[in-house]
Model the fold of this input.
Amino acid sequence: MKTLNNIFFAAIAATAMTACNNELNNDSLSNNGIINFNMGIGTTQSSRTSMEDNSYKATFSKNDEVGIFVNEVSSYNNVKYTTTDGTNWKGTPIKAPANEEFTYTFYAYYPYADATTTTINKTVALDQNTEGFIKNDFLISTATTSNQTVNLEFAHAFSLVEVTLKGNGAAEGATVNILNVATDATIDLTNQTVTTGETKGNVVMDALQTPLKYRAIVPEQTIAAQTPVFKIAVNGKTYEAKYTSEIKFEKGKYLAMTITLGEEEGPAEIEITTSASINDWTEGSTASGDITVEEVIEPVSFITVPIAANDISNLNVAGKYSTSNLLAMENEGWFSRYAKDYGATLTFAENAVTIKMPSSGSTGWNHCSFGYHADGPFDGKYKFSCTISSAGNKQVAGGFSIRTSSDDMAITTEYTVDEVAGVRTIHSFTKKAVDGQQDDTASEQNISFTVDFSQKYNGGTSSQISSGLENTVTKDLTDIYIYIYNNTLDSEFSVSNIKLERITE
Done:
């Protein structure tokens, strides 16, 4: 079949599409018992140049290849036929028995593949924009005849999905994905059935030459009502669309939808084209329902906290933590949480920051801590990791805490002690001294734990939290504060390789 740039299509009809108008020539002459094949797709031929992207019809083209099986003769197994012009086909001769009556049942498919049986497993591409959606079209045909001229009319085995964007929020360069759809199927040529498989993925739709129009081919399936089905990314915004009733992607049919994106927040409008009907590639059926489109915020997937030697010059210094002394940083960067009389000091070097405690005074995350203000948004669970280095033969204790955008509540972290799982808001650690270690020798310890951004707690504790947990909301996680504190007087430790990585299941 034609590739994205040259497949033949015909114009869309406002009424139900007509049945096959391909005239399959029945006047081809037999020669020495050789069976002749006339092949066509159940559509009318038309030029892509004249009706580009506005049609739902296809035809064979130069160098296309099909495979043919003859049910009654095992030697005629996956015989390849090729066309040089989209009309005339040549291949290994398939012959009728000499001087006797016969009836053959033919099974055919497109595109041809070596070592294929009458049961074919097919998976559509997740990225249909690179080579074009039409590369995923799969055609099947069957015919039973006693004639030496066989008309094989092919049908589409999968479903065509089309999305057109409009509205003030739509713009060229947008990407459209179909979310979590089945991508594989098993085709049985003997009974012409297509059974959808269980493999699922997000399919990138093909951006057509017509601006803001997208297409993809997927196996037949039903999308449950209120399930996010399309994701649109445009101008730095992301939208998800879901239908109020179930959506059917049907075998041999197309579903054409127009999605309206607004610049303002709130639901957008969507309508099904062609008088709100779902149309077969040659005839249509109706469907009803409404789709809502909402802007969604893509969570940060991975951050590495930067540390530079000159960070001290941009340090946001705040006093002891209290509800009346919350941080309100607008930009990403480092901060410290101590008053001068606590005597703690920070030192920044390339790739590491050190907190040093005085020989006497107060300790704790809300007295002598520092940290980093990171832009979000965040959602779900993340793995926090870093490296702790301490010098000298001295045990060092400290901890980590992550707080909401308003700095007024803490995010929960997960832990397991003696096979008992729990959550807390401070992940404490102890860096034990090494016997005989020299004062100028640093000893490293890798730290990692899971942060659950779905829960928050009004307080900071390294003990298990059994009550008082609250669910976070979007505004809690637009940015966060990562706290690190030293809880040991007359000691110091350095922190490096600070990372947050989203956990995807």
About this structure: The radius of gyration is 33 Å. The CA atoms of residues 250 and 269 lie 24 Å apart.
